[in-house]
Design a protein that fits this description.
Blueprint (H helix, E strand, L loop, with lengths): L6 H14 L5 E7 L9 H6 L5 E6 L6 H12 L4 E5 L8 H11 L8 E6 L6 H9 L17 E4 L4 E5 L11 H10 L9 H15 L1 H8 L8 H11 L11 H13 L11 H40 L1
Helix pairs in contact: 6-7, 7-9, 7-10, 9-10
Bound molecules: guanosine-5',3'-tetraphosphate (G4P).
C-alpha cells in the first residue's frame, strides 16, 4: 500500500501552526463523525491542554448517532475540550458555534478573538468557514508548499478565523486508520486502489453491518468472504469482463462510492473502545520492534568487539 503523506507540506504547515499558536485564543478542529479518531490531528491533542479547543464532529448524517455521542463523551474528558455534532450539509450551526467560541475565548467579551480552524481534507472545513462567514471564501490550498498557507477571515463580530491547510497527519503505525481515511474519501483516490479499500470496507461491513448488506443487496444469506460479496454485487450491477468474470475494479468503485454517499445507511467505522484496543496492539508491535532493534545493535557491537579481540 503506498500512501503519500506529503512530508514537506506537513512540515511547513505544522511550523506555521506552531508559529501562530501563541496568538491563537481558541482552536477549532473539524472531524469526520464516521472516523473521529482517524480524522484527527495528533498535534491538536497536545495544543488543547493549553488552549480552549472545540472539536466539531461533522457529517453526522453519515454516522451512527450513538457512536457520535460516545466520541463526544470521550473527547470532553480531555481538558479544555468542548464538542458539537454537526450536519453541515443540512443545518447551519453558525450561531451556536460563535456563541461557544465567545464563551470559551479568554478575550474580554469575545473581542479580538483569533480562532485557528484545522481539519484534514474533505471533513467539511470549507463548508464550515463559508457558513460562519456567511459568504463563499476561496479554499485555502491543501498544499502549503505550493499555494498560500494560512488565510485570515474577519467575521466582523470580534472573531477572526485563521484557516489552515487541510493536511493528512500520519498516526503511529495503525494501518486501519489509513483504510478508514480512504473509505470515507479523505485520502485521494490515487493513493490506494479502489479494490484495496473495497476489501477493507467489505470485511468491516460483513462483521459489523451484515443486515445492512442483506437489505441493500437483497441477499438471503450474507456472503462468507469479501471476495464473494464483491462478486455477487458485481454480477448484480453487470460489472463483468469478457468471459463472465467480475470486473473487481468497477464493482469496487461502485461499492465505495455508495458507501461514501451514505446509500447503505449511516456507518461509524470506529469507537473509542475499538481505537483503544488497536492502540494496545500498536504499542505491542512498537515495543517488539524496539526490542529487535536493541538486539541487532547489541549483536553488531559484540561482533565488532570480537573482531578487535581477534586482531590483537
Ligand atoms: P474540506 O474543506 O474539509 O476539504 O471539505 P469541504 O467543505 O469542501 O466538504 C467536502 C465535501 O463534504 C463536500 O462535498 C461537502 O458538500 C460535503 N459535506 C460537508 N459537510 C457535510 C455534511 O455534514 N454531510 C455530508 N453528507 N456531506 C458534507 P462535495 O462538494 O460533493 O465534494 P466531494 O464529496 O465530491 O469531494
Amino acid at each position: 500500500m503506498s500512501i503519500h503523506w506529503y512530508p514537506g507540506h506537513m512540515h511547513k504547515a505544522s511550523n506555521e501552526m506552531i508559529e501562530t499558536l501563541p496568538l491563537v485564543n481558541v482552536v477549532v478542529e473539524v472531524l469526520d463523525a464516521r472516523i473521529p479518531y482517524s480524522s484527527s490531528n495528533p498535534f491538536i491533542g497536545n495544543l488543547c491542554t493549553e488552549k480552549p479547543c472545540i472539536k466539531l464532529l461533522n457529517k453526522t448524517d453519515l454516522a451512527e448517532p450513538e457512536n457520535t455521542q460516545l466520541w463526544q463523551d470521550h473527547f470532553e474528558l480531555q481538558s479544555n475540550t468542548k464538542t458539537m455534532a454537526l450536519d453541515l450539509q443540512h443545518y447551519d450551526p453558525s450561531k451556536k458555534i460563535i456563541d461557544l467560541i465567545n464563551k470559551l475565548s479568554p478575550q474580554k467579551e469575545g473581542r479580538n478573538t483569533l480562532v485557528m480552524v484545522t481539519g484534514i481534507p474533505n471533513v467539511g472545513k470549507s463548508t464550515l468557514i463559508n457558513s460562519l462567514a456567511g459568504r463563499h471564501i476561496a479554499k485555502t490550498g491543501n498544499e502549503p508548499a505550493v499555494t498560500k498557507g494560512q488565510q485570515r477571515i474577519n467575521l466582523r463580530n470580534g472573531i477572526m478565523l485563521l484557516d489552515t491547510p487541510g493536511i493528512l497527519w500520519p498516526k503511529i503505525e495503525n494501518p486501519n486508520g489509513t483504510y478508514r481515511l480512504a473509505t470515507t474519501g479523505a485520502i485521494k483516490d490515487t493513493a490506494m486502489t479502489y479494490e484495496d479499500v473495497a476489501f477493507f470496507a467489505a470485511d468491516f461491513l460483513l462483521t459489523h453491518y451484515p443486515e445492512r448488506l442483506k437489505e441493500r443487496f437483497g441477499f438471503e444469506e450474507v456472503p462468507k468472504t469479501e471476495m464473494k460479496l464483491l462478486e455477487i454485487i458485481g454480477a448484480q450491477r453487470g460489472c463483468l469482463r469478457a468471459g463472465g468474470k467480475v470486473d473487481l475494479e468497477r464493482v469496487s468503485t461502485i461499492f465505495i462510492n455508495e458507501l461514501r454517499a451514505g446509500i447503505l445507511g449511516p456507518v461509524s467505522y470506529e469507537t473509542p473502545e475499538i481505537i483503544e484496543r488497536e492502540m494496545e496492539q500498536v504499542a505491542i508491535l512498537i515495543a517488539e520492534k524496539a526490542e529487535r532493534e536493541k538486539l541487532r545493535i547489541e549483536k553488531s557491537a559484540a561482533k565488532r568487539r570480537n573482531a578487535k579481540a581477534n586482531k590483537k
